[in-house]
Structure formats: structure tokens, C-alpha cells
Amino acid sequence: MWVLLLLAQAQYDWIVVLGAAQYGGRPSPALERRLLTALELYRKGLAPRIAVTGGKAPGDHLSEGEVGCRYLLERGVPPEALLCEEKSQTTFENLLFLKGRVSGRLLLVTDAPHLPQALFLARLLGLKAEGHPVPGRYPLSYWAREALYRLWLYLGLKPLPRSIASPGIPGSLARAP
Q1: Along the 177 residues of the chain, how does pLDDT read in single tens digits?
Q2: Largest CB tally within 10 Å, which of 4, 13, 44, 47?
Q3: CB 54 within 8 A of CB 85
């Protein structure tokens, strides 16, 4: 009985894969880890649908969202279970552009250092989100950049567009390595 209660509480309406780079139609290692984690959670029945986010970098022909959806389709996720968001350039936009297209409880899938920022932004946008960190060995600089950016947000400063962020400004919403 207790196990059934825990399983019932662990259900989500959507698994959301936050964007990371793609190269020539292939997911970057970061995006592939996120997609494989989402696929595992989907196959365990944690949610009936997966949203994959991310637009195009300059010069790209395909978006991160499209590449991610193709990757999941090739691994057996049916098209009706996928939502491909293809315009966003930042974590803030990943979530903003999903708002209104997804509802209910969301399970955000992203790198462990990035997850606190993503959850903060989801709550800022009024989304009901929890997170699942993708395990891995992440450089200290990634953890530090994300911590500085969270401080930036906690201070009430607006999310930075990727186009104006620079190494001298606390983290941007730029993609993970």
C-alpha cells in the first residue's frame, strides 16, 4: 500500500528536457545525456509525454528541440507523446515558450549544476515543476557559473539574454557544455 502511494505521488504530466547544443543533427554529449535520462524516466512511466526544448544556434539548420525529438522517436517514443519546442535560446525561454503548451506537473531534466536555476525560473513563471538532475562529472567552473547566476536571479535581476551575456557577467542562460 505504501509503495502504491509513493508511485501515485511520483507521476508527472510532462518530462521536460531542457535544451543543449546539437551538432549537424546529432545531440551534443550534454543533450544526449539529458535525452537518455528522460527516456529512462518515460519508460518507467513517470510521465506520458516528453517536451524537448531548444532553438537553433547561428548557422544551424536544425533546432535542438527537433534533434532531440528525432532522437527519442528513433528510440520508440511515439510522436503523439512528444512536443518539440524549437525557438528558445535560453533556459528562461525554454520554459517561457512551453508555458501554455504544457500543463500540470512537470519534471525538468537537466545537468545537476543547472537544475537549481531551471527550477527557480520555472517557479518564477508559475510552472509546477520538480527536477531530475542528470548525473555526471561536471567541472567546478560550471557549478560556480550556475551558482553566480542563481545569485543574480535571487537578487531580483532579470534573466540575461544570451546575446548580451559575457564572461564578466554572472552566468547567462547559455547552454551547458
Answers
A1: 333 333 444 589 999 999 999 999 999 999 999 999 999 999 999 999 999 999 999 999 999 999 999 999 999 999 999 999 999 999 999 999 999 999 999 999 999 999 999 999 999 999 999 999 998 899 999 999 989 888 888 888 777 665 444 333 333 334 443
A2: 47
A3: yes
Identity of the amino acid at 56 = K
Note if the pTM is more than 0.85.
no
Type of residue at 112? A
How is residue 129 written as a grid cell?
Answer: 515543476
Q: How many residues does the chain have?
A: 177
